[in-house]
Amino acid sequence: MKQNCGCENLQIFASSIFLVKDTFVLRNPFQVQYRKMFSSPHNGGTIPACKRKADETDHEVHAKHQKTQKDIKKRRTTKSGKKQRSSKAILNPAEKEAFYKLLENDIIKGFLEMDSTYKISDQYLLAMVAVYFKRAKFNINEYTRMNFFVALLLATLLEEEDDFYGAMFPWALGENYHQRVRYILRMKNALFKRMDYRALVSRSQCEQIFAQEPNHWAWKRQRQQITEDEQ
């Protein structure tokens, strides 16, 4: 028997923010350009932090993206001209304790239980949250529920094609989440900037996070592939 309750719940939540999506998110060049820019082998996996003006054409916006892209690439290059190697994704003991304690938060656990098919919170997306916390150099007091959802939103927008990410808004923002969506999107952009626009996370970096606590329940959230017969 096919179990699709999780997907249906996600679709309901996603459709509930359809108006918000039309009026704000899709007008944000970050959201419009996510998949195109991250799928291109020439961009280095970054999204320039520029905003579209009312009278700007698509060509002008693209030119701004290209210029900012070059600036970011330049910052990533050392004085010797060699690109910096990707850093290891290993949490120190205090960070590790804070992160796993955060996963036990009642609201976060409720959200994870709701996402029973792991559409927006599988093992790799959760590991990306830990990597983002490390890259942003969060203090222990910044390992908060809100920052968890902000990092998960960024990871989901980067990795997933389906627009189920809106399902996390009620859990992150509460009952009046429609009025506060702009707030979490601004926080997402701020986190992106704080990480020096390094949002891509390799599989090996995720596996480094897994290896620190291999038997934890979070790393057993393996997404199942749905065959055509099951659809």
From TrEMBL:
The entry's keywords: Cell cycle
Ranges of biased composition (kind: Basic and acidic residues): 60-71
One Pfam entry name: Spy1
Composition skew (Basic residues), residue ranges: 72-86
GO molecular function: protein kinase binding
Disordered: annotated segments: 60-88
InterPro entries (UniProt xref): Speedy, Speedy-Ringo_regulator
UniProt record similarity statement: Belongs to the Speedy/Ringo family.
Protein name: Speedy protein
